[in-house]
Amino acid sequence: MTQYDVAIIGGGAAGLSAALVLSRARRRVLVVDAGSPRNAPAAHLHGYLSRDGMPPSELLASGRAEVTGYGGEITAGRVAALAPLDDGFSVRLADGRHLAARRLLVTTGLRDELPDIPGLRERWARDVLHCPYCHGHEVRDRRLGVLGANAGAVRYAQIVRQWSDDLVYFASAGTLTDAERVQLTARAIGIVEGPIDQLVIDDDRLHGVRLADGRVVPLDALFVPPRFVPHDDLLAALGCDAGSDGWTVTDAAGRTSVPGVWAAGNVVDPRAQLITAAGAGSAAAIAINADLVDEDVADAVRACAPAHLP
Prior knowledge:
7 helices; 2 domains; alpha/beta; seven-stranded mixed beta sheet; FAD/NAD(P)-binding domain; 17 strands; elongated; single chain; five-stranded parallel beta sheet
């Protein structure tokens, strides 16, 4: 099997940032990229200093070029299994390829689980949005809605209110508390209760939300707080500890409970934006290289010890 210092599983912002740091540190690095980034439907990325407004695909293309320019390797594929070895880990790809690595970094991200409303998935990252910090400025002062899909949705709506004073909150009947009603009303956020039937789409644009009773609420964009589901099967299979919330536990540098295994980005942090994920990947890479240096020192001491014996 081909031997690497570090195998990075996932070629998004976290994985490529880590690969850049490690390849510049003269480590032999392989990034295995399945090619299905979470932000693929988005036309532009925002909040990334010096890259605001860039298409996500261009950021990834630039990152891949930088990594390979320093000798890092990137391969298209999906990891089917990871297993411990005496000196690291084996990595088996779905196409049958095998490789070995001294350390692992998992940056496989998450998926957005959306409510089952006709038309919602098709408009995702276009005019059905999840992150006001990523998309709020682009729909400022327009007719906005927030779908009350989870327990924190009212506070989420109060944040979205920052970008428009024409905002409607969609709630299932009987779910709002008296305090929440007061808070919404105090900031002139409209309240619409009842089940949603479907989105109203015309000329490839969102025009509103149709309720089950036939009412149509006009909208230009709808914010939906999704349920985040991490792509953490590989981490779970390795035995990495998870917290009470079900997410893999890491320290500040991304180290998991399994020696030699790190994780970074949305697979362990659902709130990480691109720039946050990239920073986490960089921090993990520095910690991984330091860990490898410690092992290199120990190996060197063992190798030269017999020559100094009396």
